[in-house]
Amino acid sequence: MAIVLPDVINEKNMTLTLRARAATGAIREIIGMLQANGELGDSEKFIDEVIAREEASSTATEHGTAFPHARTDQVNRIALGIGRSSGGIRFGKGAELVHLVFVIGVPRRMINDYLVCVGALARIVRNDSARAALLAAETPHEFAELLRSESLLLE
């Protein structure tokens, strides 16, 4: 059965108060959560893979969102770590600051499932009211429930 976005949402892998002020720091902070929650094999290798991918081509999109990711052997299933920055973080050379960061680890064999999940995330954050609700969420539980309910509307 195909993996869908609600399958990979885990509020333990979210922080709504990223401390990092730079893209690399934000990626490290979010991957640290994934590691602490047992989602990764070698976190340093995964960090290197994600940062190399980000340096090759920034994953920042419009709407103040970035999707740093890597296809990797460091996960057995899709791992999603989420960070929110109130002050914003610059990713790449884009002028717009990023407030929502979705770090994704993808097993090499699950590229189609990854595309389904990242596509759902991208559609959610493109919606002005959904993005505003995510930016206003007060707890990881509320943030996760918003993602889940918005993903159901996409089906």
Please sum up the structure shown.
The chain has 6 helices and 6 strands, in the order αβααβββββααα. It is of the alpha/beta class.
Could you characterize the architecture of this molecule?
By secondary structure, the protein is an alpha/beta fold. Helix content is 46%, strand content 20%. Strands 1, 2, 3, 4, 5 and 6 form a six-stranded mixed β-sheet that branches. The longest helix is centred in the last third of the chain and has 16 residues. It is globular and about 35 Å long. The model has no long low-confidence stretch (mean pLDDT 91).
User: How many E-type strands?
Assistant: 6
Assembly status:
single chain
Count the helices. How many? 6
What is the mean pLDDT? 91
Task: Give the N-terminus to C-terminus distance in angstroms.
Answer: 15 Å
- What are the segments in which pLDDT stays under 50 over at least 5 consecutive residues? none
So what's the overall shape?
Answer: globular
Topology summary:
Elements: H1 5-8, E1 14-15, H2 23-36, H3 43-56, E2 60-61, E3 65-66, E4 69-72, E5 79-89, E6 98-107, H4 111-126, H5 128-136, H6 140-154
Parallel strand pairs: 1-5, 3-6, 4-6
Antiparallel strand pairs: 2-3, 5-6
Helix pairs in contact: 2-3, 4-6, 5-6
